[in-house]
Amino acid sequence: MSSPTSGSRSDARVNRGKILAAADRVYAAEGVDVTLDRIAQEAGVGVGTVYRNFANKGELIEAVLADRLDGMLSLARSCAEHDDAREGLFRFLRTVVGWISDSVA
Length: 105
Hints:
Helix content is 76%, strand content 0%. It is an all-alpha fold and 105 residues long.
């Protein structure tokens, strides 16, 4: 999987973030059968910029899923630190259910 290095130019990191955010939105709304051209359009970048960051659509899908899982793991860690374990669990569940309902709405 392609990933930015710590030496990446700031505009390259910004573009990668735009692509990931756009892909997440488009995949949620239209499914994963969309083209990388469609993702580029949504991100406001050229399709070449998408291909510089992701060799193919599978790599982009993998990166979007990894970002989602990273977010869920971060949330789980934060909720696990809650003083009240029950409230931490409920916070986690409320947030995850919100994510799911947003993606199917």
